[in-house]
Specification:
There is one protein chain. By secondary structure, this protein is of the alpha/beta class. The chain has two domains: 193 residues, FAD/NAD(P)-binding domain, CATH 3.50.50.60; 200 residues, FAD/NAD(P)-binding domain, CATH 3.50.50. It is 23% helix and 21% strand. Strands 1, 2, 3, 4, 5, 6 and 21 form a seven-stranded mixed beta sheet that branches. A five-stranded parallel beta sheet has the order 8-19-9-10-15. Helix 1 crosses helix 8. The longest helix has 25 residues. The mean pLDDT is 93.
Length: 413
């Protein structure tokens, strides 16, 4: 049994950001992970997966991108290498192979039991991430076993799928990327569309995320109780091509509404596609209007491209209503329906009815127990590689207060 002031659970970007600030504050700690630093990024089999954010938006405390392609998009393997180099830069005290078994109160803090040993700590920071496990709808259990089921977390490439047509469920960033890649490989794809945020990859000659960052929209403080916005419908590609519903239709992808039921090989879809796409288009138009107003207010109109014509809308008159997957030649259903979290090892009463950790700005109801990496923890960018630095500073300030330290660490750039 070892004793440390602080135990950080998870060695992804959130846990490493906390570790970097603790190191800078001279606080002894340990970072426990089931694998190595950045293991989640390293283990993802999706070969073409890239960040949605440009490389210049990869800022962490004491670390930033210094490569030659600041406007490019790192692959998952490159993100793993980036975070591994970050951990080495300050000798992060990462203990690998430390699969979590139990976290429970102890006389002077918490006891953390793992496959690699046990620790007691006065403070614990849960940094196991927002995207722990694929959130597959319960309806998937009713799908005939003759149809293969994969998720965005288990997909590797088009050739690894069984033959036949593919149903992709979910039209946010992962879903549209999967549909685009499969269609480009010659696969016949139907995309089931739910709520999403449509955005052009570039607008008036600049990356859309440059605009959102410049306007302060990502760093605007918020609260998790407001609920998440629909995920961004973007893809990180060198050619900066849009991968929205109209462009997918040009590739031959057919569209359907939300999946409402599955019975054996039969899948039924809602008739909500027109309303879903119209809502996303209206939100996009309103945002681009705000971008135009901002560009005018800061005097950029003469330095950048003029506003382009409105983007075309998706065609919804031929939306798929029902499919018999076997009869129609489908071999695979790909679920791109988000992620969930689970804390079977957390024996502290801080979970709500949905199994999520209750917190305010990272502080849970249990003294000395903190969390980082939650969606909208304090701002829209809290789960971004670029945004976690802000929350790390707040969490470490709170940890220092737990330990009796008075000075805040701030947000190291």
């Amino acid at each position: 049994m070892s004793t440390v002031p602080v135990a950080v659970l998870g060695a992804g970007q959130a846990g490493l950001a906390v570790s970097r600030l603790l190191t800078g504050a001279g606080v002894e700690h340990v970072v426990l992970d089931r694998g190595r630093a950045a293991e989640t990024w390293r283990a993802r089999p999706w070969e073409s997966l890239r960040l949605l954010t440009p490389n210049w938006m990869s800022r962490l405390p004491g670390w930033t991108y210094t490569g030659l392609d600041e406007h490019g998009f790192m692959t998952s393997r490159e993100v793993a290498a980036y975070l591994t180099a970050y951990a080495r830069s300050f000798a992060a005290p990462v203990v690998g192979g430390a699969e979590l078994e139990s976290v429970r109160p102890a006389p002077e803090g918490y006891r953390v039991d793992t496959a690699a040993g046990s620790w007691t700590a006065r403070a614990v920071v849960v940094a196991t991430g927002w995207c722990q496990f694929p959130a597959v709808p319960d309806a998937s259990r009713a799908l005939d076993r003759g149809i293969a089921q994969l998720t965005a977390a288990t997909y590797a490439n088009p050739s690894a799928l069984p033959g036949g047509r593919v149903l992709v469920v979910g039209a946010s960033s992962s879903g549209v990327q999967l549909a685009d890649e499969l269609a480009a490989a010659g696969r016949d794809v139907v995309l089931a569309v739910g709520g999403h945020t449509r955005l052009p990859r570039t607008y008036r000659g600049l990356d859309i995320l440059w605009w959102l960052s410049a306007m302060g929209l990502f760093d605007r403080e918020t609260h998790p109780s407001r609920g998440p916005d629909p995920s961004l419908q973007l893809i990180g590609r060198a050619d900066r091509r849009d991968v929205d519903l109209p462009s997918l239709q040009q590739r031959g992808v057919s569209l359907a509404g939300r999946v409402v039921s599955v019975e054996g090989t039969r899948v039924r879809f809602a008739s909500d596609l027109p309303g879903t796409t119209a809502s996303a288009d209206a939100r996009m138009a309103a945002l681009l209007h705000r971008v135009d107003a901002y560009a005018h207010a800061v005097g950029l109109d003469d330095e950048i491209e003029p506003p382009p014509p409105p983007l075309p809308a998706a065609r919804t008159d031929a939306a798929v209503g029902e499919l018999d997957l076997a009869a129609a030649g489908f071999g695979t259903v790909l679920w791109a329906t988000g992620y969930r979290r689970a804390y079977p090892w957390l024996h502290v009463p801080v979970l709500d009815a949905a199994g999520e950790i209750r917190h305010v700005r990272g502080a849970t109801p249990a003294p000395g127990l903190h969390v980082i990496g939650m969606r909208r923890q304090t701002r829209r960018s809290s789960t971004f590689l670029d945004g976690v630095r802000h929350d790390a500073a707040l969490v470490v300030d709170a940890v220092l207060a737990d330990l009796g330290a008075a000075r805040p660490v701030g947000c190291a750039a």
